[in-house]
Design brief:
Elements lengths: L14 E2 L3 E2 L27
Antiparallel strand pairs: 1-2
Protein backbone atom coordinates (compact mmCIF):
# COMPACT_ATOMS: atom_id res chain seq x y z
CA UNK A 1 0.00 0.00 0.00
CA UNK A 2 1.20 3.51 -0.76
CA UNK A 3 2.75 5.36 2.14
CA UNK A 4 2.03 8.80 0.71
CA UNK A 5 -0.79 9.87 -1.61
CA UNK A 6 0.15 12.69 -3.95
CA UNK A 7 -2.38 15.19 -5.27
CA UNK A 8 -2.00 18.21 -7.57
CA UNK A 9 -5.51 19.59 -6.94
CA UNK A 10 -4.53 22.49 -4.68
CA UNK A 11 -8.13 23.77 -4.54
CA UNK A 12 -9.14 20.69 -2.49
CA UNK A 13 -9.37 21.19 1.29
CA UNK A 14 -7.36 17.97 1.79
CA UNK A 15 -4.44 19.23 -0.31
CA UNK A 16 -1.26 19.80 1.72
CA UNK A 17 2.19 21.23 1.01
CA UNK A 18 4.33 19.05 -1.24
CA UNK A 19 1.25 17.91 -3.20
CA UNK A 20 0.29 15.53 -0.38
CA UNK A 21 -3.30 14.42 0.30
CA UNK A 22 -4.18 14.89 3.97
CA UNK A 23 -7.57 13.12 3.84
CA UNK A 24 -8.11 10.33 6.38
CA UNK A 25 -9.44 8.05 3.64
CA UNK A 26 -9.77 8.13 -0.14
CA UNK A 27 -12.81 7.09 -2.20
CA UNK A 28 -12.27 6.42 -5.91
CA UNK A 29 -14.88 5.72 -8.58
CA UNK A 30 -14.66 4.94 -12.28
CA UNK A 31 -17.00 6.25 -14.95
CA UNK A 32 -16.00 3.51 -17.40
CA UNK A 33 -14.05 0.26 -17.64
CA UNK A 34 -10.50 1.52 -18.17
CA UNK A 35 -7.89 -0.52 -20.01
CA UNK A 36 -5.13 2.10 -20.37
CA UNK A 37 -3.85 4.96 -18.21
CA UNK A 38 -4.98 7.46 -20.86
CA UNK A 39 -8.58 6.45 -20.03
CA UNK A 40 -8.12 7.58 -16.41
CA UNK A 41 -6.84 10.59 -14.50
CA UNK A 42 -4.65 8.25 -12.44
CA UNK A 43 -0.96 8.52 -13.30
CA UNK A 44 -0.27 5.16 -11.59
CA UNK A 45 -3.03 3.15 -13.31
CA UNK A 46 -2.05 -0.36 -14.43
CA UNK A 47 -4.52 -2.86 -15.87
CA UNK A 48 -4.92 -5.97 -13.72
Amino acid sequence: MAKDVLCEVNSCRHWSNGNKCAAEQIYIVSKQQASTSSETDCQTFEIK
